[in-house]
User: What shape does this take?
Amino acid sequence: MSSSSDRVAPSPDPAVTEAVLRGLRGAPPSLPSVLLYDDLGSALFEAITHLPEYELSRADARLLEAHASAELAALPGRLEVVELGPGGGRKALTFLAPLCARQGAVTFTAIDVSSSALDACRRTVETLAGVTVHTLEDTYLEGLARAPREAGARRVVLFLGSNLSNFDRAAAVEFLRGVRAALAPGDALLLGTDIGSDPARLVPAYDDALGVTAAFDRNVLARLNREWGADFDLGAFRHEARWNAPERRIEMHLVATRACEVHLCGEAFRFAQGTSIWTESSHRFDARELREWAAQTGFACEAQWIDARWPFAHSLLVARP
Ligand SMILES: C[S@@+](CC[C@H](N)C(=O)[O-])C[C@H]1O[C@@H](n2cnc3c(N)ncnc32)[C@H](O)[C@@H]1O
Assistant: This one.
C-alpha cells in the first residue's frame, strides 16, 4: 500500500466567512451545512452512525455487503475508485475488498472537507493490502476535478451515506450533471440515498434519545466561537429536527430558547426567542426520481438495489457517451 495527501488552507476561509454572514443575515437565518464537519463534528457524525435511530447508515452498509460484488460485476475491466465525502471510510473498505481481490491493486482517492475524516478514512482503507490512497481536502466537485486519474482505468465514484440529500432537487440534478461532466463514458457513479419518507422513523434518526445529533448540530455554533471568534451562548439554542412534508426533507434547526444577540466578524445578529437557525436539510428522493435524473444528466441507471429493512437505495449510474 502507498499513499499521498493534498491539503487546502484551513478555515476560516473568506468564502466560508461570506457564506456564514449571508446565512445569518437571511430570513430565516441559516448556516452552511458543510460547517458541521470539523474534527469534532466528524467524530460526532461517526458516533451517530452507531446510534440505533440512525439505521440508514447501516442500510447503506448492508447494501454494500450484499451487493458490492454485483455492483462490481456490472463494471468489467480495470477500475479506480473515488469517494466523495467518505467520512471514516468503512464503506469504502467494503467496496474495495472484492475489487482488490479481482484486480490485485486499486487506486482510491478520498475527497472530503474534513481533514480528520480523511485521516480516519486513510487509516481504515490502508488496512487493505494493494490499495494506494490519495486524500484531497476539498469540496466534492472541486476535488473530483483535480483527483489524479489512473491511465487506462474506468473511474467509479462512490457517493454514499445519502450525502446527495443535502441538495434540494434542482441542486441535486445540477450536482449529477457536474459529476457527469467530470467523468468519461463508461465511468460510473454509485449513489447511496435514503428514499424513506416516514417522519416517525426519520425525525428520531435526526434527533436521537442520547442527544448525539443535538451535539453534532450545536457544534456548529461552538465552531463559530472557536474559529470565527463569535460569542454564541450554546445554552441559548436547542436542536430540533423537523419533517417538512411538502419538500420531503428533514431539517435541522437550532432554536433560540431566549432572545439573544450574537457577534461575529464585527456584526451583531439578534435572535428573538423561538427563532431558529437552519443548519441542514436532508431531502428524500424516491427511486424513480433518481432514475429520471440519471437519464437527464447523461447517465444510464444500470441497476438499483433497495434494503429490505430501511428504505435506502443504491443506484448504479453509468456515464453514457
Ligand atoms: C453525512 S457524512 C457521510 C459520510 C459517509 N459517506 C457515510 O456514508 O458514512 C458526510 C461526509 O461528507 C463530507 N462533506 C460534507 N459536505 C461536503 C462537501 N461539500 N464537500 C466535500 N465533503 C463534504 C463530510 O465531512 C462527511 O465526511
User: Anything to note?
Assistant: The first strand starts at residue 2 and ends at 6.
